[in-house]
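User: Teach me something about this protein's shape.
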Amino acid sequence: MLVIEMLLLAALVIFPVSLIAGIVKKRRGGDRRRSRIWMTGSMAVIVIGTILVGVLPGGVQTGTGENRTGAVGTVIDRIRNGTAASAGGALSSEEKRAAAELTAFHPEELPAYSGSPTVEVNGNVPFFTDEDLKTREFEFYSDMDSLGRCGTAWANICVDTMPVEERGKIGSVKPTGWHTVKYDGIDGNYLYNRCHLIGYQLAGENANSKNLITGTRYMNVEGMLPYENEVSYAVTDFNFHVLYRVTPVFEGKNLLASGVLMEAESVEDRGERIRFCVYCYDVQPGITIDYATGDSSGPEFTGSDSASGNRETAKQGMVSDTPSPEPAEAGGTVTYVVNTNTGKFHYPTCSSADDIAPENRMDWTGSRDALVGRGYVPCKRCNP
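Assistant: First, the predicted structure itself:
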């Protein structure tokens, strides 16, 4: 594309000179036929070149500003095309800045899903610049594109951005690719969740259609939640600002995102406390998904609801295999063991607590409500 642009620019310089020379030659009585050819050709090149130079920097586009080669990552495609999400208008400064940084992210080079809900990107280092790492509080949610798909959402998460009231209802939002469908073998049975790009526990956003995409239960709980919990922990326990950005990746005109890019970095200590750059796969093991429409197929739902926090089917009247802990201390405080990777908390006597890797284990003494308020989920084996 750069070579073509250079050739066009050269033509725009050479042919006007030739045009002038032809006019001069004509006036001096030269070959009129040859002069007319030079003049006509020069004018044609000038007109065509002017049109193409105005288009080429963002790629040849359709009337909607969408690149004909297909969009990979909504907000990235917008900056490559130089167009805003909605019809007309320029990119907002926040979106332009985010998109410019994310041009270094190439979703097409990501490895295929192979059993892990996430994969590190860019050496686990976010694409932020030094200019981004400030304590200025902000939240930004991209406008949806012509297909109704969300773009990048990012914020400087701090105590002041976090919710101060109970989470509200979000069922009124129907993101692109949304289907209400159940399958056996899925936690809660429902294949899809309305996934917050900026988690509710971080920004308190409820039914914000610019912040909700259709995502599998697996991506929401196994992929995104552990990282959201890490951000929440850094803010509430260390009073840090955490620069946080989530970008959904759509291939072509698919209505269902293939996954999301999650970036975070603690500002005050320049990433010493928390820094990550990961891609979460929007998949559900055992389920076949059509990303163009959100249609899917898998094990038929038999009508046995499972609302557990793990991937096992809940059984009515199931007896815990873990002995009950001692009664709560005065003030309602209890000691729990938190798995910062899965986002679940357990009684210390729970057999699942013994399986937590040391780097993912966090001992917590306090009220259960406070732990749930931070986004952690109670284990269904020991039912803390």
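Now, about its shape. The chain has eight helices and 14 strands. Residues 181 and 190 are 6 Å apart (CA to CA). If you'd like, I can walk through any region in more detail.
User: That's plenty for now, thanks!
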